[in-house]
Amino acid sequence: MRKLWLAAGIVLLLVMGTVLLTGCGRKEPVQKTVMVMDTVVTLTAVGEKADDAVRESIVRLQEIDGMASPHGENSDLKKLADAAGNGAWIPLHPEVFHMLEVSQEYSRISDGAWDVTAGPLVELWGIGTDKAKVPTETELAQAKAKTGWQKLELDPETKCARLREPGMSLDLGGIAKGFAADEVRKIYEQHGIRDGLINLGASSIYALGKNTKGGSWRVGIRHPRSEDKESRLGVVELSNAALSTSGDYERFFEQAGVRYHHILDPRTGRPANSGAVSDTIVVDGSLPDAGMISDLLTTAVFVLGPEEGKAFLAKLPTEIRGMICDRRLQLRTAHGFDEILQQVQQDFSLAE
Question: Measured between alpha carbons, how far is 328 from 6 in angstroms, rounded to an integer?
Answer without folding.
Answer: 27
